[in-house]
Amino acid sequence: xxxxxxxxxxxxxxxxxxxxxxxxxxxxxxxxxxxxxxxxxxxxxxxxxxxxxxxxxxxxxxxxxxxxxxxxxxxxxxxxxxxxxxxxxxxxxxxxxxxxxxxxxxxxxxxxxxxxxxxxxxxxxxxxxxxxxxxxxxxxxxxxxxxxxxxx
Length: 152
Ligand SMILES: [Zn+2]
Known about the structure:
binds zinc ion, 11% strand
């Protein structure tokens, strides 16, 4: 079951396996939050200076590949190392400037997964959202624009 513990375990695995060179300079927490159709996760600085990484709660759905959740976590860790909502010095003016996040992900071995995630988010994710909409009316999807932002 994809509970908080499952997510935390995946988070530590991703950090250990792919970002072991990135030192945690404050407490970094991870949790499920939100039910977003066009946002997979985000990173934020809390009032107590901890960093919080959240992953879309809709990804608890087993039809969402674990790899997509992994990439969401990795994406937010890249923001952390680039100094966005973390104690690191900001390396860029904007978090996605010139494709810096994607480049970092590809450099860290996520090349194929970045490609997979792009096609999955276009072909499969809207289906899952659509079925949810039919089933319980929680998520309403009019039209997913092809250019919508996946990560914030
Ligand atoms: Zn982002």
